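Troubleshooting log. The previous structure file for this entry was overwritten by mistake, so regenerating from the original sequence record. Sequence copied from the archived sheet and checked twice against the printout by T.R.
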Amino acid sequence: MPYTADLNVSMKCVKYMLFVANFMFVMIGFLLISIGTTIQMIYGDFEVFMENRYFSPAALCVAIGIIIFFIALLGCVGALKESTCLVNTYAFCLFIILILELSSAIATYSMRNNLTNTLKINMEYSIDKYNASNNDEYAWNYMQRNLRCCGINNSDDWVNKNISIPHTCYNCETCNTDPSFLIKGGCLDKLTYIVSECAMLLGVGTLCVSFIQILGIFFANLLAKSIRAIKTEMLVVREENRQRIYKHWAENNPPKVDLPVPASSEA
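Regenerated output below.
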């Protein structure tokens, strides 16, 4: 029985490590939801200048964070019940989430390519509609006020479009006729930096989570293997005990042989 005892100790250690990993997954779920929601809010402030595809990784990040809660619950239930099926399902779900996270990280990184040109095209399209669209007017004034910038590259962008320079282009909004208060820098570089940094944060975050999930998959496979070994050993021991009991009973209860009794006529 020492082999079975060693397996029990090993399984308990793996089970506790899996519980720790699941606790980390719950914290990671909160982190992913927080990161994804924050980035969506930041992007939402500048959605006029951005394409919808930039929102997809952040939305996927939130969805993954929510799914991780349920997967962590499945892992805990599987570990408590010592169910090979549940633990294997848990490991498989983690693997699928791992694929999604790597896809999100790759998509986020690839979006950084040609980011400046994409934002510039959208900003040029939006600035043409400044006087015709309240949404574009609000977006430009919000961006220029909060990023402390003016136009795409500088204030000449407004002049070249024959549009009066907005009051948000001035350090003193009540002094919008005094060139000395005019903000010199454009908004393109600042917006590119914000979007790029958010994408970097999202990509690095999902990669870190992926490495931790690999540990979760490893522990789940170890636990499933330990459970199978324990159950196999228990079946072997049970069969050996059954054979031992039967042998003991057979030794103490030999079969009785009934000898034929001769008939009286033959006597």
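DSSP finds seven helices and no strands in the chain. Archived copy saved in two places this time.
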